[in-house]
Amino acid sequence: MTVKPTLQGAGLGFRRELIPALKAGVPSAIDFFEIAPENWIDLGGSYARDLRAFTERHTFVCHGLSLSLGGLAPLDEMLLKQIKVFMASHQISLYTEHLSYCSDDGHLYDLLPIPFTEEAVNYVAGRIRRAQDILERRIAVENASYYVAAPLAELSEVEFIHAVLAEADCDLHLDVNNVYVNSVNHGFDPVAFLRQMPAERIVYMHMAGHYQEAPDLIIDTHGAAVIEPVWQLLDTAYALLGLAPTLLERDFNIPPLAELAAEVARIAKLQAGYAKAAAAA
Fold first, then answer.
1. Is there a domain that residue 4 lies in?
2. Of 209, 210, 211, which is closest to residue 226 (Cα–Cα)?
3. Which pTM value belongs to this model?
């Protein structure tokens, strides 16, 4: 069996709509793919065969959608056990999830903010530790976009993220677009936010497009091309925090593969510039 390389470089979300084009040839800019394991675990037939063909030849990451780390419902340990088997079967080493919640009595089909409190830190960190115990690996949690600040906040978002990472002893999945979205929606400096992120815990990054509903309201849709301010913020993130594998998310209004590959190539070009500067230093 082919030994897949360590996760690095620039990646693209693996969408079923893109499979025919990817079968014709994976663009050279794409170093890895990302999938939501919930969407593939129980899938059979041609899609399962297609996924196997790609995971045998390419590096993949799992990015969860429904673990609901901040939710009140019991942690879905059965799902975690299924994810563990799935990752082993496809030789996937990294699993990340959102630092948010998406369930109560049932699935809410949205990612909602966790209150920034000490109690929530303890609660969420405990659930992350349990998830890591079941998966038998460190996971990374992603800073989430949100539209209404959770009530009763005792901490800033930065303080909350630091506290959860420290208490759970997990890694950070830094979503650069989410930083930008929140900075517009909640009126803060995104560069100042990045400066306060723990570089030593960042193992993965996301880039995505969004929808500008109003001058002070952005909806994180993953349904459009990345805009220039977000590209500039990724450049700043690399400068301040160092390089990390970075993936382009596109979940809706999916354009031809060539258009997505051009955005992935832009990530790769930014990375190459910093790698070259570091080598010359």
1. no
2. 209
3. 0.93
